[in-house]
């Protein structure tokens, strides 16, 4: 059975047509949407992290709040930019949020994408290792996080502590057992997907990927997933990995849907440069009557290869409308594809 979640970027803007005018609106509506999504049967609530932007930035207070308000839905990120993260402090935050949710955290991590400012991570006190770049720094931070989340002691205890210590070296607390296996890597290339597989991380592939062959996004992603699974098998991990892909999917079932997305029915992939060195393929949107959508999505090779589909939501259209879109996908599209 496929899992279906939503992915929100958490935009807000004080404009006439936005229902999300402030940061407070974005955060409180995210909690409400996760609750509504759980009620209609959605499997996951995921959130993108961007710094220096009017979008979600610090994910753990939001994830913890959702964990306290829900009981079943997976709660995750897609993705946290590891160039900005202190992996030690992140392990403590993640452990706390995971325990609050009862072990439902699914943390998507990544090198990050082009940001709002130049080298924004420098303002957070980080710089690449000697001879490396910001991508190396992100991967280094990630490898430290992966090691710490194993829960093994590594810090020498103070012989005169304020409180009694357990015997041996100390680990970071709170530790949440099993969180290490619920880390994902948001991969923009085949090579980083293979790297993630070797380290035992699940795979997230979004609507944006490095263009490595000129083929449609879904074909390139399917090949990326195949390379990832082969690398996972070669690494000899003792569990099956999870793989998610993101898509913009809008069933046209009422006048609101047609007004908002009726012009997206002829959408196509786009190719272009996201920075001077990187050519990328941007995935199309899917907007059509439910039966047409089912036919289109059945031809998407990456969706077929993945076990989790994350639906990107236009959060500024409000909680009620986005809950309607999610319900429409589950009710009118997913059954025709055998996802439920």
Labels describing this entry:
globular, 340 residues, oxidoreductase, EC 1.-.-.-, Bact_Lucif_Oxidored, 8-stranded parallel barrel, oxidoreductase activity, 3-stranded antiparallel β-sheet, Luciferase-like_sf
Helix content: 25-40%
Count every beta strand, where a strand is a DSSP E run of 2 or more residues.
Answer: 13
CATH architecture label: Alpha-Beta Barrel
Any low-confidence stretches, pLDDT <50, length ≥5? none
Structural class: alpha/beta
Radius of gyration: 20 Å
Distance between the termini: 6 Å
CATH top level?
Alpha Beta
Number of helices: 10
Look at the structure and name the CATH superfamily: Luciferase-like domain
The strand order across the widest sheet is: 1-2-3-5-6-7-9-13
- Overall geometric form: globular
How many domains, in number, for the residues?
Answer: 1
Mean pLDDT: 96
CATH topology: TIM Barrel
Strand content: 15-25%
Order of helices and strands: EHEHEEHEHEHEEHEHEEEHHEH
**Main beta-sheet strand count, sense and barrel state:** 8 strands, parallel, barrel
What does this structure look like?
The mean pLDDT is 96. Helix 3 (87-101) links the parallel strand 4 (80-81) and strand 5 (105-110). The protein is globular and about 70 Å long. The chain contains 10 helices and 13 strands. It has 340 residues and is α/β, with parallel strands linked by helices. Helix 1 runs parallel beside helix 10 (319-333). The chain has an 8-stranded parallel barrel with strand order 1-2-3-5-6-7-9-13, surrounded by 7 helices.
